[in-house]
Amino acid sequence: MSFEQLMTVMLSMPISHEPPTLPFKFVGGFALPSKTIGLIMSVQGVYSMFAQAFLFPVAVRRFGSLRVFRFVAICYPLLYIVAPYLVLLPPRLRLIGVYVCLLFKVTAQVLAYPANAIQLTNSSPSLLVLGAINGVAASTASLCRAFGPTVSGIIQSFGLNIGYSGLAWWTSALICILGAMESLYMEDGTGRTDETGRDGEDVEDPIMDQASMVVAVAAAADLQHTDFDSQERG
Question: What angle do CA 25, 29, 34 make, to 5 degrees?
Answer without folding.
Answer: 160
